[in-house]
Design goal:
single chain; about 180 residues; alpha+beta; Lipocalin; 8-stranded antiparallel β-barrel; 3 helices; 8 strands
């Protein structure tokens, strides 16, 4: 009896093969369905990501995109005179009016100047429809600072770099903190 159960009869062998082929075919079909389903899901996720990433560009931006208070984290190398530069870090709070003007209060710490607190500044900005833009910052006793920026996350964040004066190599990230 024990040996008989290990060796199938001729009819049983064909049945086992038939069942095996049916299971294999079913598994291949299921695998194809799963693969197709994953492909559709991946396409939908990628398409949604592309729409989200380009949502600002599709909506378009304007000066009104920047309104309210933004916290700023800034760092880099700044000019102190014709031949002197320093590495510095800083924070600020900037308030955009949505019409092309802003004001700010900043605090910084430089390798030469040390800590400077509550320094006021004012400026102007222009936002392009593609969510890029430029600004000019006026600080007491300093030449105008020209920047180039891009607005991301529907206006919740701004990535900014100093374009002039030339010795400055400064980047800043601005994050919306108020309405």
């Amino acid at each position: 009896m024990f040996a008989r159960s290990l060796v199938p009869h001729a009819g049983e062998d064909r049945t086992v093969r038939r069942v095996s082929r049916a299971i294999t075919a079913h598994c291949k079909g299921a695998a194809l369905l799963v693969t197709f389903g994953l492909g559709v899901a991946a396409t939908m996720v990628l398409a949604q990501g592309a729409v989200s990433a380009n949502d600002d560009a599709h909506r378009g931006c304007s000066n009104r995109t920047l309104r309210g208070d933004y916290g700023i984290l800034v760092s880099g190398v700044r000019a102190l005179g014709p031949t002197v530069t320093e590495t510095f870090i800083g924070t600020a709070i900037r308030t955009y009016d949505g019409r092309g003007n802003f004001e700010q209060i900043d605090n910084s710490h430089g390798t030469v100047t040390g800590a400077v607190t509550n320094s006021p500044g004012v400026g102007t900005y222009t936002v392009n429809a593609n969510c890029s833009g430029t600004s000019t910052l006026f600080l007491p006793g300093a030449p105008p600072i020209e920047t180039s920026f891009v607005i991301v996350d529907h206006g919740d964040e701004v990535k900014d770099i100093v374009m002039s004066p030339a010795p400055n190599l400064v980047t800043a990230v601005l994050t919306r903190v108020g309405p």
